[in-house]
Amino acid sequence: MPRAVVMRGAGERVVVGDFDRPTLQCGAVLLETIYSDVCGTDCHLFHGRLAGVPYPIIPGHVSVGRIAEMNGEVHDVDGRRFEIGDVVTFLDVHETCGQCWFCLVAKATTRCPKRRVYGITYSADEGLLGGWSEAIYLKPGVKILRLPENVSPQTFISGGCGLPTAFHAVDRATLRMGDTVVVQGSGPVGLCAVALARLAGAGHVTIVGAPDQRLDLAVEFGADEAVSIERTTPEERVERVRGLTGGRGADVCIEASGSPAAVVEGMELTRDNGTYVIVGQYTDCGSVQINPHVHINRKHLDIRGCWGSDFSHVYRALIMMSRSVGTVPWEKMITRHYTLDEAGQALEDVERLRVVKAVIEP
Amino acid sequence: MPRAVVMRGAGERVVVGDFDRPTLQCGAVLLETIYSDVCGTDCHLFHGRLAGVPYPIIPGHVSVGRIAEMNGEVHDVDGRRFEIGDVVTFLDVHETCGQCWFCLVAKATTRCPKRRVYGITYSADEGLLGGWSEAIYLKPGVKILRLPENVSPQTFISGGCGLPTAFHAVDRATLRMGDTVVVQGSGPVGLCAVALARLAGAGHVTIVGAPDQRLDLAVEFGADEAVSIERTTPEERVERVRGLTGGRGADVCIEASGSPAAVVEGMELTRDNGTYVIVGQYTDCGSVQINPHVHINRKHLDIRGCWGSDFSHVYRALIMMSRSVGTVPWEKMITRHYTLDEAGQALEDVERLRVVKAVIEP
Amino acid sequence: MPRAVVMRGAGERVVVGDFDRPTLQCGAVLLETIYSDVCGTDCHLFHGRLAGVPYPIIPGHVSVGRIAEMNGEVHDVDGRRFEIGDVVTFLDVHETCGQCWFCLVAKATTRCPKRRVYGITYSADEGLLGGWSEAIYLKPGVKILRLPENVSPQTFISGGCGLPTAFHAVDRATLRMGDTVVVQGSGPVGLCAVALARLAGAGHVTIVGAPDQRLDLAVEFGADEAVSIERTTPEERVERVRGLTGGRGADVCIEASGSPAAVVEGMELTRDNGTYVIVGQYTDCGSVQINPHVHINRKHLDIRGCWGSDFSHVYRALIMMSRSVGTVPWEKMITRHYTLDEAGQALEDVERLRVVKAVIEP
Amino acid sequence: MPRAVVMRGAGERVVVGDFDRPTLQCGAVLLETIYSDVCGTDCHLFHGRLAGVPYPIIPGHVSVGRIAEMNGEVHDVDGRRFEIGDVVTFLDVHETCGQCWFCLVAKATTRCPKRRVYGITYSADEGLLGGWSEAIYLKPGVKILRLPENVSPQTFISGGCGLPTAFHAVDRATLRMGDTVVVQGSGPVGLCAVALARLAGAGHVTIVGAPDQRLDLAVEFGADEAVSIERTTPEERVERVRGLTGGRGADVCIEASGSPAAVVEGMELTRDNGTYVIVGQYTDCGSVQINPHVHINRKHLDIRGCWGSDFSHVYRALIMMSRSVGTVPWEKMITRHYTLDEAGQALEDVERLRVVKAVIEP
C-alpha cells in the first residue's frame, strides 16, 4: 500500500494518502521512489496557476527510483534490457502522439496537444502517476533512462527538472565556442544554465540574480561574474554587462527568472544580432512594455521562446552531468530533504526562496 | 551643374539647389540619375525622426542611373568591367569597415558602426551623395550592380528600397516549401514580401493591411487572402488567420507595418514554434504591452529582428525580380513620378498614403 | 477477392494472384486502388538488388485510392475525419517506432531500424501491403493524406515516389532565393527536383541528363538550360555549368542520377562552399575515385546524403503540387498506364528507359 | 638588419639571409618575433607541393611577437590602441578583398581569390612577410590580436596554426552537448580538435592515430579513448568505435589525418545522419575509392569540407585557450625549439614525425 502526497486543488493543503499497489499492464514498470524533485511549478500547481490540471494530483514530475517490478521485458533507448533493482529516471512527458500536425509536420513535439505529464496533468485518480510517492507507476512506453555509473541518485535529483529545462535553453541558444553569456535568474534553471553554458564552451558567463548564496553557488558552477539584483538597478546591470563585453552586450542571454520585467532587461543585455532565449516565463505573470524598434528590430535580435523538453534533452543532460561530476558541485544545489509528510513545508520553503532545491525523499 | 533636392533639417521645406559637377577620384563613378526612390524613411528624415543625420542631406538611398563618367576601370562583383552608358544601381550602404568586431567576429555587417548610407547619413556638404539629384557621385568602392536585361529602370525602381528589405526579411524567415505565411502591412515592403514569399515556395500567403487598393495589389502580387485592418478587429484577424491555418496560426509571419501594436498581433498570428520576423519597426513609434509567457515562452516562438540589408540581398533580389517579370506586375507599385521640384509633394503624398510608391525622376 | 501483382523473388516473373478480402482491425482502412507508381526501386526489387526484402511481395509503394471501408473513425493530421469515398494517398513508411535512439535522440526517423515500407519490406504473406493491387490494406496508424482539391489522382501519381524524394532533397539543400542549381539526372526524381527548385526560388536551373525527350520535359518543368550527357564529356559539362555560373559552379547541385560516376562530376559542378545533395544512389552500383583534397576539403564543400522521406515531405510536396498545377505540366511525366497483368511489361519499360513514368491502373 | 630563413624553391635547402629593416607605411607595425610555428604545410612548401607559391619565401604563417615599431595609431578589433611592447599575434591571411562574389554574395571569405597568406603566398622579395625571421612586417590593415593575460607566447605557439584550423573544424561540426566525437589524426590539428571538442561539450571523444606518445598526449588533452592505427586494421577501428557508440558510430567525426584512405574510414566511423568534417586534406595526396550508396546516400550523411580559417576563428580560439590554460596542458605539444639556423632540421623533424610541434625561436 504505497503512500503518496495528494494535491487536492488550488490552495488546498496537501495530504498523504494510501494507494493500492497497482497491477502492471504488459510493458509497465513499478518504481520504488528514491527522490523526487520539488520545483517552482509545484508551487504554481499548489496555487492553481496552471490551466487544465486534473486535481487531485500526485505532484513530482522529475524523480529517480529503483525498479521494483516489471511486466515483460522493457528496454532502454539503446536496446539494453532493464533489470529489477536498476536505478533509473524517466521522461515525465508521455503520450506524445506521433500522429498530429505538431508531431509530424512541425516536428515540434513539445507542442503536441496529446502529451501528458507525470505529476502535472495526470490525475491521482488514474494511479501513482507522480513522484511524491513511495512508488511510481510507469505506463507502457514511458521512456526510462539508466543513471550513468558516476551519477548518484542524489546528484541526479540535484539537477531535477531544472537540468533538462536549462539544457534545452542552452541547446536552443546554439552557443558558439567563446561566446559571452548572461544568465538571468539564479534558481535551479539558471544555475544549471550557468554550468551547461560553461561546459558547452562559453567564453565568459555572468549570472544576474539573488540572493547572494545563490550567486556564490553560481560562481562555483562556473560563472565568471555575479551581479546581484538586490543591489543594482536595471540600468546599472545593463551598464555592467556591457562593460564586460566590449560595450556590446552578451552574445547569448538566457532568461530563467520568471519575471516579465526581466525580459526587457534581457533584450538590453544582449548584443545587436545576439540570441536571447526565454525559458523562465513558465506561468502567466503579466505583461511588460517592449519597444519593438529599440529592443528587437534595430538590434537585429534573435529571440527564442523555449517550452518543455523532450527525451533527447534528458538523455544528453545526463551525459553532461556525468561528464562534470568532478568539476561542477551539483549536489550543493540541494538545500534540504523532506519526507512525504513534510511536502507542505517543502512547497512553502521553495516559494519563499528559503531553499535552492528541495527534494522529497519518501 | 547638377541640380539636387536638399533637406535642410527637421521639418524644413525641401529645396532644389545647384551643385558643382564633381571631379572623380580614382575608382569613382558619376551616375546620371534615371529614377530615385521615395520611401517612408524619407518622411522620417523630413520630420527629423532618425538620430545622427548630418543635415543638410540629399535624400534618396535607392536609385538607378546611367554611367556618365568613370575615373579608371570599375568592375562588378563578377569581374566584368563597367562601360559608359551602363544602366546600374548600387548598394546605398558604404564604408562598412571590415575591421571591427561586428564585421569580423559577429559577421553582422549591417551593425558595423562605421557604415554610412547614401541619402541618409552622408551630408550634402560632402557632395552628390543622394539620389534625388540629376547626378550621383559613387565613391571608389561603392558596390555597383548592372540591371538584368529584362529589368527596366522603371521595374527596378518600383521595388525600390522595399525590395532588398523584404528580401532580407523573407531570407531571415528561412521559409520552407509549403509554409503558410502572413505578411502584416501592405506598403512597399509588405507587397514585396508577399511576392518574394510566393516565389520562395510559400504554400499560402495572407496579407493583412489597408487600404483596399493595396490589398488588391497584394493579391496580384501573389497573396491568397487579404484581410483589411479597416474592417476587422485584431481578434477577428487572429481568428481569421487561424481559420486559414488549421487553427494553428501561420508558420511564418513577417511584420512590415510600422505599428508597434502589430507586433503583439503578429505573435498571435504565428503558430507555436513558428517564426516571426520583425522588419517594419524602422523608427521609434513607441512601446507595446507583451506577455512573455503567452506570446513567447509557451509558444516556443522564434522572433527575428531584421535590420538593414547588405550587398547579397540586393544582388539576389535583382535575380528574383528578373525571374518574375512576367508573373509579378512590379510596376503597378508605382503610383506617380515626381520631378525634383515636386519632391515636397512626393513626401506629403507618401506620408498620407496617397500613393503606394512615389518615384523621383530628375 | 482482390487481385494483386506478386513478385516472388529475385529475377522471377511477376504474377497476378487472388487475395482474400481482409477483415479490418480497429483503425484500419481498405483502399480501392486508383493508381500505383512504378519506379526504379521496383526494378531493383525485381532483380533482387535490395537487402532484406521478404519475398513474395506486392510491389507499389506510392499509390492513390478511394476509401472503400474503414473500421472505426480515422482522422487526418489536421483532425478531419475520413469518409468512405475520399480520395487519398498514404505514407508508405510505417511502424517508425518512436522509441529508439534514432527516433528519440538523433531525431533521424528515416534511419529508424523498425520502420517498414509498403510495397518493399512487407511480405505478400502479411496481406495487401503493396499498391499493385485492386485493394490496399492500410494498417491502423498508417498516415493517410487527402489529395488537395485541384490535384487529381492522375496528377498525383505523375509525381509518384519521385516527388517526396525530390522534395526531401531540395529541402535538405536549404536553397536560398536566387541560387543557381544543377540537377543531375532526368528521371522522375530529377524532373521533380527541377520543378521544386524553381518553385523554391532558384535563380537558374540546369538539368544534366538524357535522353532528349526527358530534357525537353525538364525545360517545361522549369529548367533554364539542359545539358545532354549523350553529346558531352564530363569535362565539357563542368565547363558548360561553370560558364553559366560566372566560372564558379552551381550554388546547389542535386544528384538524382543513380550513377556513381556522377558523384565526382557533381562535386566539380558545385561551387566552392556550395551544397551538394546526393539522393540518387538508392542501390549499390559500386564505387568511384574521389580526391578528398580537390573535391571536398579545398572546396569547403557541403555534401549531404539524403535517404528516404517522412510524412512532412509528402504533406508539403502535396501543397507544392497543388500550388503549381497551372504552371508545371506534372501529368506529362506519365508515359503509359498498365493493367495489373501488364506489370512485367511496365518493369521492362522502366528499366529500358522507354518511359519516364509508368503507372499501374488496376 | 633582421635575419630571416629563406625557402628558395622546391627541394632547395633553406638558408638564412639578412634583410633591410623596413620603413613602415602608415598603419604598419613591425614585430620582433618571439616564436613562429613550423607545421606540415611548411614541409609541403619545402617540397613544392602547393601551387602558386612565389619562391623565394620566408616561411612561418602563425607567429607571436612584440610590437617594436608602429607608424601611426593601430587598434585591435575592440578599438583598443596597441602600444610598443605589446605581445601580439596576427591573422596570417591578408588582403581578403571584401569586393568579390565570394566575399559579398557567398560570404565565404576563405575562398576569396585575392587573399594572400603570410609565410606562404607572399614572396621574400616583397619584404619580411613570414614568421621565421627576427622581425615581421605587418602591412597596414593586418588584423592583430593581443594575447590574453594568462596565455604566454609559449602557450600560444604550442597551438600554432593547428589551433584555429581545429577551431574552424569543430565549429563547422556544429557539435551538440553530449555528442560522441571521433578525431582522426594525432598531429597538432587533431590534438587541438580533441581539446576543443571536449571544451565544446562533447560527451565522449576518441582519438584515432599514432604514435603512442601522441595518443598519450591526446588523452591528456581530453580524449576518453585512444585507438592506435599502428596496431589495428581499419575494420577493427570501425568495430571499436561502434562498440563505444552503441553500435552506431560517432555523432561527429573530424578528419585531421592527411591521408586520403582515412576519408572512407571516417565515413564508416560516423553514424547514420552524423556529421563528418574533412579538414586534414590540405594538399593533394591522391584519390580514394568511395561507394556513394554505402558511404553517403544510405547513411544520410553530412560531409563538410573545411578550408582555411578567418579572424573569428583565431579570436575565439584565443578565448578558448585562455579558458583552458589550467585544464589542457597546451605546452606539452611543443617538443623542441629551433633557432633560425636550425630551420632545416626543424623541417626534417616535423616531416619524420620526430616531434609533435616544432617552434622557431629566432
Blueprint (SSEs and pairs):
Four copies of one chain form a homotetramer.
Chain A: E1 3-6, E2 15-18, E3 29-38, H1 40-46, E4 63-70, E5 87-90, E6 93-94, H2 101-104, E7 116-117, E8 135-138, E9 144-146, H3 153-159, H4 162-172, E10 180-184, H5 188-199, E11 204-209, H6 212-221, E12 225-228, H7 234-244, E13 250-255, H8 260-269, E14 270-278, E15 288-290, H9 292-297, E16 302-305, H10 311-323, E17 334-338, H11 343-351, E18 357-360
Parallel strand pairs in A: 10-11, 10-13, 11-12, 13-14, 14-16, 17-18
Antiparallel strand pairs in A: 1-2, 3-4, 3-8, 3-18, 4-5, 5-9, 6-7
Helix pairs in contact in A: 1-11, 4-5, 4-10, 5-6
Describe the structure using short key phrases:
homotetramer, 362 residues, alpha/beta, Quinone Oxidoreductase, Chain A, domain 1, Rossmann fold, 2 domains, seven-stranded mixed sheet, six-stranded parallel sheet, 11 helices, 18 strands, 28% helix
